[in-house]
Design a protein that fits this description.
It contains five helices and five strands; from the N terminus they run E-H-E-H-E-H-E-H-H-E. Strand 1, helix 1 and strand 2 form a beta-alpha-beta unit. Helices cover 51% and strands 24% of the residues. It starts with a strand and ends with a strand. Helix 3 runs parallel beside helix 5. It has one domain: Rossmann fold. About 5% of the residues have low confidence. The chain is α/β, with parallel strands linked by helices. Strands 3-2-1-4-5 form a five-stranded parallel β-sheet, with helices on both faces. It is globular, with a radius of gyration of 16 Å.
Length: 144
């Protein structure tokens, strides 16, 4: 089976990545689309034990909301189109998580949508997409 990892972001760019993945699945017999939504999270902030406990609750809520609002609807649409698909939600840095999932799943490719982030952080550190393209262990397709 050929696994294609697709980065979801809950926006139009993620929808474009899913549509491209859907086309690729139609061309690659026996393929599966693995939709991955990453909730951005940094382990480097210093917090009290109480804040960490609250953070854990928020993390679980964020995962639940992402599954319900983004991942499940996308998987259901693909399944209705007779495309094998499943979805997961993880916490962390987008590029790191997408690459890690691709390794874990022995994926052939990662597909992401290009976003138009113009913020200061994006200019200083690069976008998650740029970081993914530079660090991924499998080919990355960026859909515009």
């Amino acid at each position: 089976m050929t696994t294609l990892v697709i980065g979801l972001d809950g926006h139009e760019s993620g929808d474009r990545a899913v549509e491209y993945g859907k086309r690729m699945a139609g061309l690659i017999e026996g393929s599966e689309l693995l939709l991955v939504y990453v909730v951005e999270w940094s382990p480097y902030s210093f917090q009290t034990p109480e804040e960490n406990e609250e953070r854990h609750k928020r993390r679980e809520e964020e995962i639940s909301v992402a599954v319900e609002r983004v991942v499940h609807p996308s998987v259901e649409k693909l399944e209705k189109a007779n495309i094998k698909a499943r979805g997961i939600v993880r916490h962390g840095h987008v590029a790191d998580i997408l690459n890690a999932v691709a390794k874990e799943e022995n994926a052939e490719q990662i597909i992401v949508g290009r976003t138009s982030g113009h913020g200061l952080a994006s200019r200083l550190f690069g976008s998650a997409t740029s970081n993914l393209v530079m660090s991924a262990t499998v080919p990355v397709t960026v859909v515009s």
